[in-house]
Amino acid sequence: MDSMIEFIQTHRPYVDVAQALSAVVNLIGWSLGAILLVRAWHNKAIHSVSVGPINIKMQQAAIEATAAATRDWQAKSGQPEVDVTRIRSTVGRAFSPEVADRLIGKAILWVDDNPANNELGVRALRKLQLDVEQATSTEQGLAAMDRRHFDLVVSDMGRGDNMRAGYELLSAIRARGMTVPFLIFAGSDGPEFRREAAERGAQLSTNSIIELIDTIISHLG
Questions:
Q1: Tell me, what's the pLDDT at 12?
Q2: Second label for 31, Cα 20 to 30 Å away, from 97, 109, 142, 164?
Q3: CATH says 52-220 is which class?
Q4: Predicted confidence band at 37 (pLDDT cuts at 50, 70, 90)?
């Protein structure tokens, strides 16, 4: 040990030069890595970054967005206080490695004639790195499905004077032979609605935004 210290002291200028060169090499390496990462992300060659602090920040943003959507919807519908523990659990599951790898980038079609009602819910889903497209009618929804692939469909029930528009969209999709998961998000949530929705081939009927998001994660993740 003493001989090593003596060597370093004797050759201090060379050691300083070596340390400086090492710092420059590290800086170049990190800079090049950052450039390649940004280019790969831009070209959609990768979908996520799993660096600890970044992942934690993204997860916290998703929790906040989901909580905001839940509070907004429950205030409108007169439901009980927000269950923050459940929100954290749901979002945490979405960011777990075994789920996130399958969840990221999946496409959702959300059909509702009043999309402003779902603005915060859509924002929460996008914070989970899901691709959400909105449509305001059955016709628009079906046209969107003709144009691109969707991994899941969310629909309201009543639109204008048609109080069963959600079922009509579901029937039209199933008539095409498409088995895409179909979730009904509406103001009513009685057992009779859940039962009829299941009989018609829907995977869920709910008026709970957190149940909706939780089910989306289960189906896509």
A1: 60
A2: 97
A3: alpha beta
A4: very low
Tens digits of residue pLDDT in 108-129: 999 999 999 999 999 999 999 9
pTM: 0.75
> Long-range contacts of range 73-82, CB-CB < 8 Å, 24 or more positions apart?
73/120, 73/121, 73/209, 74/209, 76/117, 77/187, 77/207, 79/207, 79/208
Tell me the mean pLDDT in the region 95-100.
92
Q: CA separation (Å) from 53 to 9, 67, 99?
A: 39, 21, 19
Asked whether the beta carbons of 118 and 134 are under 8 A apart, the reply is yes
Closest CA to 208 of 190, 193, 187: 187
Judged on CB neighbours under 10 Å (0-12, 13-18, 19+), 93 is middle
Q: How many CB atoms lie within 10 A of CB 99?
A: 17
Taking the domains of the chain in order of start, what are their residue ranges?
2-42, 52-220
